[in-house]
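Shipment paperwork, digital attachment
Item: protein structure file
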Amino acid sequence: MTDDTRAFLVSLFDAAVAAADPGEALKAHLPEKPAGKTVVIGAGKGAAQLAAAFEDAWGAPVEGVVVTRYGYAAPCRRLKVIEAAHPVPDAAGEAATREVLAALDGLTEDDLVVALITGGGSALLAAPPDGLTLADEVALNEALLSSGAPISAMNAIRKQVSRVKGGRLAAAAAPARVVTLVVSDVPGDDPAEVASGPTVPSRTGRAEALAAIRTYGIDLPDRIIRHLDAASEDAPAPDDTAFARNEVQVIASAARSLEAAAARAAAQGVPAVILSDSVEGEAREVAKVHAAIAREVARRDRPFEKPVVILSGGETTVTLRGKGGRGGRNSEFLLSLAIALEGVPGVAALAADTDGIDGSEDNAGAFADGETTAEMRAAGIDPAEALGAKDAWGAFDAAGLLFVPGPTGTNVNDFRAILVR
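Attachment content:
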């Protein structure tokens, strides 16, 4: 892959991330100032950057606390930022969630709560319900992450095994008004699904959670199943009076970021098409579909004429059976794509997570083209074996094709760009 091709693909990623910049996104969505005090709470991999941007834009006294992933903090003058573990919760996240709840204690109807919610908040807001422990929440997250279930199914379960998810955090703020500002990382941009909707009431209940467990064969401890069977544990419904004055706005999303990337490509003389901003499914299988489209364009100029860059977003999944290797869903997508495009000339791709971290390592994703598998073999790596071992990171690292931009301060999920010259 030439340096110019890499630079072109990275420029599209940069445009997508810039379109989700929290400072710019907040400016058009600030609520009216309250008669009482303003309390900011937040959770997610981009929550600290949102909090810093809110402080700069608000121009009035503010207090509160946000929790973000280790290494993702941003300096705030008045708001407290706490770092915790992601994607599996830890004791720091549990302690941080207690501080978030404490910030909501004793509020009045004259007060305003601004909830800054981004992807990753599900793990960072660790608050097991009565009768369960942090170890149970850890076991739940580990089981969900290895299940291959779509994010909607995972969240249906998470919402019913928490003291804060599924709108419960907003209910704890009553009678204060809650305005939720969301950077969406979920297919379809439903704010109730981002971070399992801590301030947005759930439309799913225990029945949907139990159905998801059966459908995807998720093995959970008996005590969690007993909790889900308890009739008193449903999350509050959307018509609960606690939510009557609340407001929810999606201020950044994959759709807007893909549109920005398409505009950047066009400005460089390359037409762009957006397949979808809400692609779901097993990463390696989604890759095969993308590869088939790229091959058809390369060989027959259909369904799009080349040159073209094919863009897509959403959230794929990786099903683990036993011990997995290193990497994440974008790296696995790209390894499967590289195998499917072996020997196809004129095709190059970048797949990356817009938060800057893909899975277990420090890369956001990787680059690939028709020569990538040959480069991996030359480095002593069998691509098919690496895919089977769930070690996409190891394969791309050996070939020198990892993409490591570092934390971006936002999160609108997967970004995929396939250039057909």
